[in-house]
Amino acid sequence: MEKRLIAPVIITVCYVLFCVLFAISFFLFADLDLWVHVLILVFLLISVGIGIFVLVERIKEIRSGEEDDLGKY
C-alpha cells in the first residue's frame, strides 16, 4: 500500500468503528422507542456509506496523480 493511502484508510476505519460503537452503545443503554433506534441506525448506515464512498473517491484521486483538490477550483 502506498504511503499516501494510509491516512485516508486509517481515518475511515476509525470513523466506521466509532459509528459501530456508537450504535451498539445507543442500543444497549438508551431506552427509546424502536422507531428511534431504527432511525439512528439508518442515519449511521448512510453516514458510513458516504464515508466509504469518499474514501474510494480519494483513493482514485491519489492513484490518478491528483493529490490536491484545489486544482479543480
What does this structure look like?
- The protein has 73 residues and is mostly helical.
- It has one domain (3-62).
- Helices cover 79% and strands 0% of the residues.
- The protein has two helices and no strands.
- Helix 1 (3-29) runs antiparallel to helix 2 (34-64).
Give the topology, please.
Layout (H helix, E strand, L loop, with lengths): L2 H27 L4 H31 L9
Helix pairs in contact: 1-2
Q: Low-confidence stretches at least 5 residues in length (pLDDT < 50)?
A: none
Helical stretch tally: 2
H-E string: HH
Helix content: over 70%
Total E-strand runs: 0
Instruction: State Rg.
Output: 16 Å
SS class: mainly alpha
| Main sheet record | none
Distance between the termini: 29 Å
Strand content: under 5%
* Total domain count: 1
Please state the overall shape, judged from the principal axes of the Cα atoms: elongated
Mean pLDDT: 85
Task: Write a short abstract of this structure.
By secondary structure, this protein is mainly α.
